[in-house]
Amino acid sequence: MTQIKQRMASREQRGFGIPETLIAASAGVALIGASTLALRSTGSLIDKMDLKAGLQQNTISGKRMMRSEIERGLHLLIKTKQKPNDQLAHTDLNHDDYQASLSQCQSLAQQTGQVFNPVFGVKMAELNNPVYYGLSLSSAGKGYALKRCGASMQLDGRYNETEQQSLAMVIDDIGVIRCDSDQPECIIDPRKETTPLSELAANTDFVFNEDKTPERSSREPAIRLITDENRKLIRFIDPTTDKDNIQTSFLKIEAVNKEITTHPFYFVAYSRADKRLDKGPEDGEVLDGLFFRNVSSKRMRFLVDGSGSMSACILWGSGFGNWKIFWSGSNYFWSRRSCALTRMESLQHELISLLQELPNDTQISLRSFSSPGYQNHRIWQNSAKSLVNIGAEGTRDSAIAFVNTLDDGYPYRWGGTDPWEGLNEAFADSNTDTLYFLSDGEPNYDRNRGRWTTDDHASTSGHYAGLNNNREIALKVNTIALGLQSNWMQSLAGKTTGDYLHIDKKYVLSSTQN
User: Whole-model pTM?
Assistant: First the structure.
């Protein structure tokens, strides 16, 4: 027994034996290997998040620049398959008046070995020559880009036309389409696989036919544009056929290992500087770009109208397509006439643009209201129980996906105007300090399911102001009335220290002069 103890003590003094050492070494190698794999996976995830954040920031900065310039413009310049009539001759990008300045832009690009394929132009009141936006190659040379050519802009927003035109990047990393699913396993069209991107960029067709540029296919840029009959609107749409998995224009970075990082590119802008627009039934309609102002809260809810009246067409096109349903102001009707933008599409683009720009630490909730039991009376499930952090993994994309579903199906199934559940929910949430409440019509019923009358205006706003008295932090309600004056929404905003915004064409046009 004593000898056994001595041998054990001797082993303890010597340390591990060969078997123990091998086991320990194997465990160490496994641990290091697992750690290395984890670090690589984490690093890959961080890299992908950084790429996505970069694409998102690219979208924000470029869209702000382009939208600002388009909104300051008198009208757009585009190429059309059909020769424009006399009333639209001034919008023809092929007009002789624009060829000299266009040639200068293309010469600027050639001097630096670049491509500049004109997509559209903007005629500015304060400039002799238009500002042009054209297709080029991305900074890395592995994708496409949208570049601006024209008079340089000073820090105070004024143009300097005394200097030579300048060429600058606006939107980088526009995606290269692989196939209808745009995944690495896609089979690229062999006829285009070896064609240099610079050649494809130079030869991509941007001639509008019935207000739209052509659909895109393999290795072409993932952008397609639509305009309206008056050449005021630029909107980026699905670049491919409706039958595939691609739904929006998009940005993309494709790594060497075939890992793809994409970011949807939503954009709508409307030239507003020309006050000589003919007055018509759309004078009270909603235009984009101004719905949500002074957004600074980090704990807010969005309650938006999902009713069938949101299918009203704001901007009509000049062509015809498939039969669709629209709201006339009093009833639904079918039409084959091309609609460049509906109220709902305008809301979707505006809200999506805001969601893309919100800081990661912002907490939000999204709800659309219509009639209980109808399609658009629902809440974004991520925020069904409480506000959620927009920066959490996948949350921003989920919020955008929810907004994109608001125009699904037939408008007569969207429902009526019943905002009370959403309003009650917002006032009951003590964590929310700001509500953006947007509607295009009067409620179908009052809070107690009775007939809505003018007598309800003051009593309804007074009811919610009273709820604020029982809150530790008062809820600020910013109301946005689309297309019509709403006295009760104005009263609700006033009694909750919020802002009231009535959006119609007169407001939009006058706002460009401030």
Answer: 0.76
